[in-house]
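Bug report

Summary: structure tokens for CRAL-TRIO domain-containing protein differ between web form and batch submission.
Environment: batch mode, default settings.
Steps: 1) Submit the sequence below via batch. 2) Compare with the web form result.

Sequence submitted:
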Amino acid sequence: MSATKYSHPFLNGLKPLPEGYDEELQQIREWMKSQPHLPYISDEYVYLFLHSNYYKVKETKDTIECYFTLRNNSPDLFSNRDPLLPKNKIILDIAHMTALPKLSPEGYHILLYRLADTDYSKLNFADAVRVFCMFNDVKLSEDRLSEGYIVIFDMKGCSLGHLTRVTLPALRAFMQYIQNAHPCRLKKIHVVHTVSFINQVMCLVKPLIHSNLLDLLQFSSDGPESAVDLEYLPEDYGGPQPAVKQLHEEQRKNMENNYRDWLIESEIFKVDEKKRIKKPSKGMFASFTSSFKSLDID
């Protein structure tokens, strides 16, 4: 059992704990005892995985295995998590990553991402994925056991130059993480202000996307108002909420001031391959040469 200075994955803890799932928690605990390569995690961490999988034990095991394996096997994306590192500050300068203040009618959190600086030469794709995951870890901590997330990607300002900055290993690991490891209930992904080369983008990513994620994707040449009602949107888009830049700066400051040491410490949560009894499926975390498949877990 490794001691940590901070509480993970919820900086301020998770109280009260969900009720009625003691048996599922115990099943995961017993299984993890037989998997020495996995790190020790708190009951709160287990509940996050269970909740994201609607308390289905088999699916939760798959998510846990994939989550901690990717965090070990993709150091470009899951190490150097200090938000004050120059390469991370650049991403926070050129992109807006914001949680909108108001929940959807269903009680879902709404996240919006867009470019703040359209100079594609400033974009390092692996750095962008790293900071995206850092931002999302902070959101999971603050939102606790969210009922779901609606994600809006505003492509305004994106160019073919940005597409040339995408590196395939980082893209593959990112798609694997979002689909099989990120412990949240993803409800809808809206891509707005779609660009003329959206078909080229889809040709690049479609081989990496599972059908259930494709079902969540919606594209529009209009703005975010095509995704959610105006009442949920910042003033930039004609809504009553604070401007995107203001929200981004507030949430960036929170990450830097309140979550910096927590994010750095979170780098310890990964598998130890030297202790693994059973190797993962070939190609899943190393070569990525075929479509992603679930691990074979006892």
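Above is the batch result. After comparison, the two runs are identical; trailing whitespace caused the diff. Confidence is low (pLDDT under 50) at residues 283-298. The chain is about 40% helix and 10% strand.
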